[in-house]
Specification:
The chain is mainly α. Helix content is 62%, strand content 3%. It is extended. It is an enzyme of class 2 (transferase).
């Protein structure tokens, strides 16, 4: 890779700094948004920086340069473009992100995902965790326990 390629590290924006990043990004598009509006934008795009930037581009086309947008302006101009799947829900539950898990459940419900599919994904993760726990209790290494999951 050193001879024929280039490695460019791209670090994710820290979720606690996302609102500030989006506010600064809005400025590049000729918009001014307050911090609460930037946080709403981050929430509506589920932290997807590309989607958030595309929403800012769209807002810049709609509003004249220098327009100041507040929470209401973002709420009216930005659709909730988050798309969830049952695996996002399992991840949020495992991370203890209760408010995100609740948003995901509501999103899945509005998209018509049936309850058995949701239950399958959650029970699958619980079975995996239980199996890992059993392997660790038997004195196996974490690496071996993970390999035994056949994933």
């Amino acid at each position: 890779m050193d001879k024929h390629g280039l490695f460019v590290p791209v670090w994710p924006v820290d979720i606690s700094r996302l609102g500030y990043w989006l506010r600064d990004r809005a400025t590049l598009h000729g918009l001014q948004i307050d911090l609460d509006a930037a946080r709403l934008l981050g929430e509506r795009t589920e932290g997807n920086l590309l989607a958030a930037d595309q929403e800012l581009q769209k807002l810049a086309l709609i509003h004249p340069q220098g327009t100041r947008l507040n929470v209401d302006g973002i709420a009216q101009g930005v659709e909730d473009s988050t798309r969830f799947d049952v695996f996002n829900l399992a991840d949020a539950c495992l991370k203890g992100e209760t408010s995100r898990a609740s948003r995901i459940v509501n999103g899945l419900r509005s998209e018509g995902v049936e309850a058995p599919i949701v239950l399958w994904a959650l029970s699958r993760e619980l079975r995996t965790l239980l199996s890992l726990h059993q392997h660790l209790d038997q004195g196996q290494s974490f690496e071996h326990a993970c390999k035994s999951q056949n994933r």
